[in-house]
Recover the amino acids of this structure.
């Protein structure tokens, strides 16, 4: 008897990027078929080549912009998608302050364009890359999904605006099934060392900065503030391994499939509506704790100095991960040490990222 293990087909926008490339592997391992759609504005074709090698199969890749409605229509007319995982977006907070129109255009208008084409082709299942940034400076910790939302920079506003658009869309038409996943601080790399985070220029985020100091590309880490009301005065974040994060997307898709295919009336209600879910570990780790863990795991010394707080930073941020566990059956498995080990493996194997050094 021949059994077809191939599951539904998924459109992955932004699938050449950091989180998208790891998610492609998780999707393949879970039996999903996928098409990656990316304009390569912050990624490289090499990431797709490496993912294809890792999974032993060529990934179908379309180079295109989510604001190019005609190009999107072509993709939707040539495939029958179950749903879309929408990673495509710009993500640098500082750049968004300098170029707000670029961020609103790319992240908000781009998402509207995508949703319009999805509606045209009656594809109404979406997993969207939202962010813990929508919680602003949280009143309570851990942060659950009902916490108040507010943002102080255009990047965060673009994510919050998209969330509002998704809520309005569900109000207008309850057949949409929309899951914004609110990521906390994604770090780490695939255990093969073949794919990982490859920032342009000097990294803004902590883990890539640490690893570039470790590999000798940067001289010293500046720790932004040591007078926060935290365990050691440095900022506390919920670092989550990108492999766990990728698996969270598979769990969200599984959930959408279960909910939308249930034929038993006593089963769960069919429409998912707007269902925001945190993806975090539920544990806070301070900047100093992360630096020390990196040194312990890799044996690399990370010279650092304390400097002033970075404008817009908050003291502490970590998730309540209960909703993901209860609804999706998902929880993070990998430790801070795993995050450091895999980051270092990727960085030391690829000192210049995907570029040929
Ligand atoms: P990334 O920059 O590595 O990946 C984003 C991908 O989207 C890139 O490959 C880029 O080329 C593509 N892209 C951007 N604009 C596009 C457009 N208009 N059309 C087509 N492709 C486009 O970023 P990432 O870290 O993988 O993040 C993925 C998503 O998750 C983003 O939406 C980001 O805002 C969100 N997010 C990231 C983090 C994080 O810390 N990395 C945290 C929370 C949320
Ligand atoms: C973490 C901690 C810094 C760099 C950002 C975005 C957020 C989300 C994830 C997309 C803070 C400290 C950092 C350095 C340091 N992205 N730090 N020296 O700010 O929590 O979140 O990325 O959605 O929206 O704002 O992450 O890695 O920049 O900082 O001391 O060189 O490390 O002050 O306490 P952040 P981060």
């Amino acid at each position: 008897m021949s059994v077809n293990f191939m599951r539904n087909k998924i459109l992955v926008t932004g699938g050449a990027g950091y989180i998208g490339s790891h998610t492609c592997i998780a999707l393949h391992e879970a039996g999903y078929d996928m098409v990656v759609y990316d304009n390569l504005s912050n990624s490289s074709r090499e990431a797709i080549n490496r993912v294809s090698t890792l999974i032993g199969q060529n990934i179908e890749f379309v180079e295109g912009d989510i604001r190019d409605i005609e190009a999107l229509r072509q993709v939707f007319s040539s495939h029958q998608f179950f749903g879309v995982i929408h990673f495509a977006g710009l993500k640098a907070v500082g750049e968004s302050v300098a170029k707000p129109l670029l961020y609103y255009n790319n992240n908000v208008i781009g998402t509207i364009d995508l949703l319009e084409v999805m509606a045209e082709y009656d594809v109404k299942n979406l997993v969207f890359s939202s962010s813990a940034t929508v919680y602003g400076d949280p009143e309570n910790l851990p942060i659950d999904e009902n916490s108040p939302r507010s943002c102080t920079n255009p990047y965060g506003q673009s994510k919050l605006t998209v969330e509002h658009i998704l809520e309005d869309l569900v109000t207008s038409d309850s057949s949409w099934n929309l899951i914004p996943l609110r990521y906390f601080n994604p770090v780490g790399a695939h255990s093969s060392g073949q794919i990982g985070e490859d920032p342009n220029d000097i990294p803004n985020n902590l883990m890539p900065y640490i690893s570039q100091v470790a590999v000798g590309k940067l001289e010293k880490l500046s720790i932004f503030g040591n007078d926060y009301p935290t365990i050691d005065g440095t900022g506390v974040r919920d670092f989550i391994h990108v492999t766990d994060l990728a698996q969270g997307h598979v769990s969200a898709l599984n959930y959408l499939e279960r909910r939308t295919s249930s034929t038993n009336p006593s089963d769960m209600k069919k429409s998912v509506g707007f269902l925001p879910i945190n993806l975090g570990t539920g544990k806070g780790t301070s900047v100093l704790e992360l630096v020390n863990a990196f040194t312990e795991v890799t044996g690399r010394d990370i010279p650092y100095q304390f400097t002033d707080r970075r404008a817009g930073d908050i003291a502490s941020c970590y998730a309540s991960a209960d909703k993901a566990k209860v609804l999706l059956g998902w929880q993070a498995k990998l430790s801070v040490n795993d995050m450091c080990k895999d980051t270092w493996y990727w960085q030391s194997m690829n000192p210049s990222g995907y570029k040929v050094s």
Notes: The domain at 9-349 is CATH 3.40.50.720 (Rossmann fold). The pocket of WQD (ligand 2) is lined by residues 91, 93, 131, 133, 185, 204-206, 209, 221-224, 235, 237, 287, 310, 313 (CB under 6 Å). The radius of gyration is 20 Å.
